[in-house]
Amino acid sequence: MEFRSTSVYLGKYKVKTSLLHYKVLVSKSSFRFKVARLSDNEEVPVVILAKDINSIGIDMLSTSAYMCLTLTRAGCSRIRTKIGMNKSSKYQFDCNSLKEEERRIFIFIDQVDMSLVQCIAVNTAAIRHKSTLEHQESTDLLRISKLSLEKSIHDIEHVLVQAAEKQSKKTEKILMQNFNYRKWSSFVTLFRDVKMTKSDFMEALDTVNCLGGLENFLHSIFWFEAVYLTEVDDYVRSLVCHSGCGGKAFLKCSNCRVARYCKEECQEEHFQEHGMECEEMKEERKRKKKQEFLEEVYPVEETGGVSYDFFISKLRSKMSHLLRVYLKIRYSPEQVNNNDGYDTNCHDHHENSDQTKEGKKTNLSKRKPGA
Q1: Cβ-proximal residues to 332 (8 Å cutoff; 6+ apart), any chain
Q2: DSSP 276
Q3: Measured between alpha carbons, how far is 68 from 60 in angstroms, rounded to an integer?
Q4: What are 240-286's pLDDT values in tens digits?
Q5: Which residues of 313-335 are buried (b: 16+ CB within 10 A; e: fewer)?
Q6: First CA to last CA across the chain, in angstroms?
Q7: pTM score, two decimals?
Q8: How far apart are CA 87 and CA 94, in angstroms?
Q9: Phi, psi (5° rounding) for residue 88?
């Protein structure tokens, strides 16, 4: 079976890829994925045989789901040779080390579903030491392995889930695979741990001028693809004319900011009917907005004076603008005289995912908490 990974670490070496995710093949005998060779960046296949795995720890309960493979010395040596890793200890992936944390591979999983859980359970059954990690065990493992940002995101999401469960007053557990937790944790990590300022954030976001560039930017602030696509899908689904004509709706009621219309004529014809529901829709939007983030858990003072509402509204505004330009060109090109400087074609946007059009770095995942 093949699944997608958001990131792969060999010790502290984060595997590079030309795409925004990694493809990992898993079978009863091995794990397989590609790694850029350190000497020339050419991608080479890496095979981790089941016999080379001393133990495996699996955390499938959080949004930051991952597998941690602790290798034998022989298995570690083969991978080092394959990717051209020299004897430098800076990556903390050392076949001669007596420390288990220096022979570990972390594979962070893009999206968990039951078929993947069952597949991994079946294909790792022969590994002698296998464990399902509870929260504290998972936190300790990330801390010992010095994966600071991953630990930060993992812990923030756990705190938010606990708070949500307490607030909901329900006995059942809330699934952490709810993508809201990744949006929330990325916000807290950026503005509390990485200590990004509001102006830094806006400067980086302003350089994004195409949908592919936006995807790269979101990936750099710890959103994985499924989170981004959910936001895109929600926005596209909302572009339905409220009058019922079926047209693509790019106009919005200025009062409730919920009802959309494809043209002014539809809005005028529907004015009386919408007038009876407009205030109610406005209040419902405000209620949802208040419920979106638990500010009592991470008050604005902890995030450098930046609110979650500011963070998510700016991201959604940028996303909606780029999608609106694209959809207008696709569905009604005669309505668009220019694209306001936004490149809707976005050629080769995966080639330089860390660079903005001015050449500035936006890959924030390289920065450490407190930096």
Answers
A1: 248
A2: T
A3: 11
A4: 899 988 888 888 899 998 999 988 899 999 988 999 999 999 998 88
A5: eebeebbbebbbbbbbeeeeeee
A6: 39
A7: 0.74
A8: 8
A9: -60, 140
Q: How far apart are CA 239 and CA 87, in angstroms?
A: 56
Torsion 203-205-210-216 (CA) sign? positive
Q: pLDDT tens digits for 36-47?
A: 888 888 888 999
Alpha helices in 189-253 (DSSP H): 198-206, 211-220, 225-238
Q: What is the DSSP string of 319-346?
A: HHHHHHHHHHHHH-GGG-S--TT--SS-
DSSP string over 91-142: T---TT-S-GGGGEEEEEES---HHHHHHHHHHTTT-SEEEEPPHHHHHHHH
Burial 70-83 (b: 16+ CB within 10 A, else e): bbeeebbbbbbeeb
* Side chain identity, residue 89: S
Token pair of 198 as six digits: 């509001």
The two structure tokens encoding residue 221? 């602030």
Q: What pLDDT is stored for residue 337 in this prediction? A: 45
pLDDT attached to residue 18: 56
**Do the Cβ atoms of 108 and 85 come closer than 8 Å?**
no
Are 141 and 57 in contact, with CB atoms under 8 Å apart? yes
Beta-carbon contacts of 290 under 8 Å, excluding residues fewer than 6 positions away, are none
Q: At what angle do helices 180-188 and 148-168 cross, to 10 degrees?
A: 120
CB neighbour list of residue 95: distance below 8 Å, 6 or more residues apart: 73, 74, 76, 77, 80, 103
**Cα(91)–Cα(105) distance, integer angstroms:** 12
What is the 3-state composition of the chain as percent helix, strand, coil, each rounded to the nearest 5?
45, 15, 40
Residue 360 three-state SS: coil
CA atoms within 13 A on the CB side of 62: 30
Radius of gyration, alpha carbons of the chain: 23
Q: Residue with structure tokens 């955390």?
A: 59
Pairing of strands 129-132, 53-59: parallel
Residue matched to tokens 């076949």: 95
What is the C-alpha separation between 279 and 284, in angstroms, rounded? 9
Task: Give the three-state DSSP class for 356.
Answer: coil
Can you tell me the distance from the alpha carbon of 371 to that of 367, in angstroms, rounded to the nearest whole number? 7
Is there a contact between 289 and 201 (Cβ–Cβ < 8 Å)?
no
